[in-house]
C-alpha cells in the first residue's frame, strides 16, 4: 500500500528554521516525483518544491520560497525532507507531501507550520 506521512511541523518564530519529513512506504521514492505543497487558510493549495525521479533528481521551487527552502531525499530511508530557513509569517500553512508514482498521486494528511512571534 502506497502511503506518505508528514512530520516536523510546529510553531517557529519569524526568521527561524524547521525541517519537515515525509516518510514513504509501498514504493521506491527514486521511482517517483516527490513534491511538497502547502495550503494556508482560505487559500488554494500551492506547490512549494519538487524533486524528480532518479538517483540525482533535479529540484524545483516556487519563487516565494527559492533560496530559503531546500528539498532533499534519503532513498535508503525512503524519506523526503523540506529544510525551511528564514521563515516568514506568510509561510504559515499546512504542508503536504505528494508522491507521483505509477500514474497516480498520493497525499499525506499534512503537518501544520505556524510562523509567529
Report on this structure.
- The chain is mainly β and 117 residues long.
- It has strands at residues 3-7, 10-12, 18-25, 33-39, 46-51, 59-61, 69-74, 79-84, 93-101, 104-107, 111-115.
- Strands 2, 4, 5, 6, 9, 10 and 11 form a 7-stranded mixed β-sheet that branches.
- Strand 7 and strand 8 form a beta hairpin.
- It is globular.
- The termini are far apart.
- The model has no long low-confidence stretch (mean pLDDT 95).
Please outline the helices and strands.
Elements: E1 3-7, E2 10-12, E3 18-25, E4 33-39, E5 46-51, E6 59-61, E7 69-74, E8 79-84, E9 93-101, E10 104-107, E11 111-115
Summarize this entry quickly.
This protein is mainly beta.
Helix content: under 10%
Q: Biggest sheet, in brief?
A: 7 strands, mixed
Silhouette:
globular
The succession of helices and strands, N to C, reads EEEEEEEEEEE
Specify the oligomeric state.
single chain
End-to-end span in angstroms?
40 Å
Helix tally? 0
Q: Determine Rg (CA atoms, Å).
A: 13 Å
Give average pLDDT, whole number: 95
Amino acid at each position: 500500500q502506497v502511503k506518505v506521512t508528514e512530520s516536523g511541523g510546529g510553531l517557529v518564530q519569524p526568521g527561524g528554521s524547521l525541517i519537515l519529513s515525509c516518510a514513504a512506504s509501498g514504493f521506491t521514492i527514486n521511482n517517483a516525483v516527490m513534491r511538497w505543497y502547502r495550503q494556508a487558510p482560505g487559500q488554494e493549495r500551492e506547490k512549494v518544491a519538487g524533486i524528480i525521479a532518479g538517483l540525482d533528481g533535479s529540484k524545483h521551487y516556487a519563487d516565494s520560497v527559492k533560496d530559503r527552502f531546500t528539498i532533499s531525499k534519503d532513498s535508503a530511508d525512503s524519506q523526503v525532507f523540506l529544510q525551511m530557513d528564514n521563515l516568514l509569517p506568510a509561510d504559515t500553512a499546512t504542508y503536504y507531501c505528494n508522491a507521483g508514482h505509477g500514474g497516480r498521486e498520493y497525499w499525506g494528511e499534512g503537518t501544520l507550520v505556524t510562523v509567529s512571534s
